[in-house]
């Protein structure tokens, strides 16, 4: 279906997306769920681009890595063939070293239509890069978990064959992260740019970002794409962007080689979310191995090592939560953000840390409860630098809520999971399938038709 066709995969008329402050009508629970489902399907259909789904038609017109993983999870509920195509298209752009780039560029779009575009990254000049233009960095490895969830939704022979094709690529992705990116030598993957965390502008990165030399005047050489479609007051500042550019410049100058990162790269951080996803991926790969005839044992062993390293390196008993570690200073970063809750994704997280993270999530900082008064924020509500409107510095996001929801289910906290699920449904019922939401009013912010919000809504609805 083309982006301009009005309709859904079920053949029903596409509803008009809810905007800020405009609720999806819900005179009865069944009708409410049906309306939300129609909205989600229509959003995904509108963003489908022949072999992948764009995050949005305005802000993000190419293919993004962890977006595609989240999108596949929801698509599996309505179009399993499209879910597999989403993942296979992404992994067709995998680098020879195993990295899965965070952006795969659509060559049909005009030069300059997006910043930072393919000319900025210059990936095709790097060793082992694919023929298609991509970025040179990665995003959290949620792809193995996505592949497993897609298969579990419809475990037919076609699904098993799709898993067999994807399995070696998923293994190569994990090998890249656990070997080439273990810059600290302690068993965790290191991110080399805030964009790799997925939470680009989080307060978690303020201290290491402040140490990156840059001048806001650098941005005069570029035309930002995001502020043409979203309020500049809600987005990273020009100084933030100048630092983002400086970090990429450093990595690109060394042709995206990871063997020269230690001691010279300006941003080196071990992230709780990234490494929780890394460990959860090994658990998912153990299940996938059982389907495709491979040995699940090595995956289970690697998962245990990642969990042990995560607790040893990133858990702070004084705060009772997980924090990123800045490898350049060898210190934990102090901000209390939603990143610290993400190790609940690990089924083998020790009980002491499980309980501590749940206490943190239920504190006034995040407000998790069986009946939530407000949605889950991305940053500590009580912190002086909490910003309810600015990108990743306070607003609620569907994907971080979904990840925590999955973690709660993993550890048997169905009471809290039910409260978070209802809060997620209320987000979309109030604000539509927006990119992110005001953490008090639930008004939609960012892109008005965002794919992972729609997709994870479908998954959340199906698990009710």
Model description:
With 464 residues, the chain is mainly α. It has one domain (29-462): Glycosyltransferase. Helices cover 43% and strands 5% of the residues. A hairpin with a 4-residue loop joins strand 8 and strand 9. Helix 2 runs antiparallel to helix 3. The longest helix is centred in the middle third of the chain and has 24 residues, at 157-180. It is globular, with a radius of gyration of 20 Å.
Task: Quickly describe the structure.
One of its GO terms (biological process) is oligosaccharide metabolic process. The chain has 464 residues and is mainly α.
* CATH fold group: Glycosyltransferase
Distance between the termini: 29 Å
Helix content bin: 40-55%
Strands of the widest sheet, in order across it, are 5-8-9
Tally of distinct domains: 1
CATH architecture: Alpha/alpha barrel
Helix and strand sequence = HEEEHHEHHHHHHEHHEEEEHHHEEH
The description of the largest β-sheet is: 3 strands, antiparallel
The stretches of 5 or more residues where confidence is low (pLDDT under 50) are: 1-22
Dominant shape? globular
Class from secondary-structure proportions:
mainly alpha
Number of strands: 11
Characteristic key phrases:
Glycosyltransferase, 464 residues, disordered N terminus, 3-stranded antiparallel beta sheet, 15 helices, two-stranded antiparallel ribbon, mainly alpha, single chain, 11 strands, globular
């Amino acid at each position: 279906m083309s982006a301009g066709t009005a309709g859904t995969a079920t053949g029903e008329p596409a509803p008009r997306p809810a905007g800020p402050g405009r609720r999806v009508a819900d005179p009865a629970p069944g009708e409410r769920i049906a309306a939300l489902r129609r909205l989600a399907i229509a959003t995904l259909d509108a963003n489908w681009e022949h072999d992948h789904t764009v995050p949005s038609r305005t802000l993000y017109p190419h293919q993004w890595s962890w977006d595609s993983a989240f999108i596949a999870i929801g698509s599996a509920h309505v179009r399993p063939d499209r879910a597999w195509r989403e993942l296979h298209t992404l992994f067709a752009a995998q680098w020879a070293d195993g990295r899965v780039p965070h952006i795969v560029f659509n060559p049909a779009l005009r030069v300059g239509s997006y910043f930072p575009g393919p000319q900025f990254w210059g990936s095709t000049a790097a060793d082992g890069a694919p023929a298609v233009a991509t970025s040179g960095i990665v995003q959290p490895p949620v792809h193995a978990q996505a592949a497993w969830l897609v298969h579990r939704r419809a475990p037919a022979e076609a699904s098993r064959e799709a898993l067999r094709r994807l399995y070696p690529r998923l293994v190569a992705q994990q090998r890249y992260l656990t070997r080439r990116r273990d810059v600290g030598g302690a068993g965790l993957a290191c991110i080399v740019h805030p964009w790799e965390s997925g939470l680009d502008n989080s307060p978690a990165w303020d201290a290491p970002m402040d140490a990156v030399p840059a001048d806001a005047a650098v941005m005069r050489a570029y035309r930002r794409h995001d502020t043409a479609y979203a309020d500049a007051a809600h987005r990273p500042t020009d100084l933030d962007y100048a630092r983002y550019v400086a970090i990429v410049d450093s990595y690109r100058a060394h042709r995206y080689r990871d063997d020269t990162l230690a001691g010279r790269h300006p941003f080196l951080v071990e992230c709780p979310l990234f490494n929780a996803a890394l460990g959860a991926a090994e658990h998912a790969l153990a299940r996938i191995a059982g389907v495709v005839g491979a040995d699940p044992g090595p995956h289970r062993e690697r998962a245990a090592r990642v969990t042990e390293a995560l607790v040893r390196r990133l858990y702070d008993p004084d705060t009772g939560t997980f924090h990123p570690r800045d490898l350049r200073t060898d210190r934990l970063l102090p901000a209390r953000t939603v990143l610290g809750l993400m190790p609940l994704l690990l089924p083998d997280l020790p009980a002491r840390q499980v309980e501590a993270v749940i206490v943190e999530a239920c504190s006034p900082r995040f407000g998790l409860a069986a009946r939530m008064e407000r949605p889950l924020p991305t940053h500590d509500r009580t912190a002086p630098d909490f910003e309810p409107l600015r990108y990743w510095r306070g607003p609620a996001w569907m994907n971080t809520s979904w990840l925590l929801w999955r973690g709660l289910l993993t550890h048997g906290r169905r009471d809290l999971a039910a409260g978070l699920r209802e809060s997620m449904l209320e987000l979309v019922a109030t604000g539509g399938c927006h990119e992110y939401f005001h953490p008090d009013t639930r008004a939609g912010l960012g892109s008005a038709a965002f794919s992972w919000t729609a997709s994870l809504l479908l998954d959340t609805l199906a698990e009710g």
